[in-house]
Amino acid sequence: MSEYTMKAIRQHAFGGPNVLQYEDAPRPTMKAGEVLVRVQAIGLNPPDWYLRDGLKILPPEWRPPVHFPLILGTDISGQVADVAPDAAGFAIGDEVYSMVRFPSGFGEAYAEYVSVPSSDLAHKPAGIDHIHAAAAPMSLLTAWQFLIEEGHDAPNPLQSTPHMPVPLEGKTVLVNGAAGGVGHFAVQIAKWKRAHVTAVASGRHEAFLRDLGADAFIDYTRVAPEEVMHDVDLVVDAIGGPTTARFLRTLKRGGALFPIFGLGASGGDEAAQRGVTVSTTQVRANGAQLEKVGRLLNDATIRVAIDSIFPLTDARKAHERAAEGHIQGKIVLTVK
């Protein structure tokens, strides 16, 4: 392999995991303000399989043009290999992590090298390895931007008003889908902010979530959380979508429902009648926020749970694992 090529997972058509091919690809060239990163690990996220399959989950008018061959992925951890002259704050050899270009472009993270806008990049927390760092960015930034600070003023594509986090200290918080990528971070952030947290997941995740700080647990396979929870201040629905309105009945007047996946969410009229807020937003790349949350990762205030690890060559198997569901934490690819 020459200095101009690398190994990557590419696809030449939309489809299932079988379209993912491990092959040679051109090594990316840096543009102004970018940093070239030698990738050590890659975190998987739902947008990866949505894009792999053709973004069928989005309305047609929201689907960006896609050109093949396509490289999936946004979340990486690795070492700086080169720095553009106008990209300040990073030096060759620095250990870094990032959510690359999301949602404004394609991160092309399933590869040995990735070019990253310096504004999307942060120094990897020294207290965690590349696997755990790569698993964090999108899921942790999503939880952070929903619960602590949105961190940008871009128009909200999912609602007419900006998303506004709510105070958490002393409040009761219900986290649905608590064992997954965003959910397990939402539990920890709410506890860090001194909320009382009830986690909702299948029973096999109870010990895991209580270890992360959950005060109470509901096994949704045995009881519907909306039937037993009342007077909640905030529901973080890490699953979201069309079923999220069922949580309106759990909220007290003045409470809020945050569906992480806002597409298809309904219940506006009922929310108004009940005097509660439904608010969602789109996570955006933010290197400064990754520097900030990196301090919480470094001292283990927030921990990253790993569901499974696959080599880059087995990206197809990693996507098959994702399709099985019931993920505890994050799936990660490693690069040799």
From TrEMBL:
Any GO molecular function: oxidoreductase activity
Domain called Enoyl reductase (ER): residue spans: 15-333
Domain of life: Bacteria
SMART domains: PKS_ER (SM00829)
Annotated protein name in UniProt: NADPH:quinone reductase
UniProt organism field: Acetobacter persici
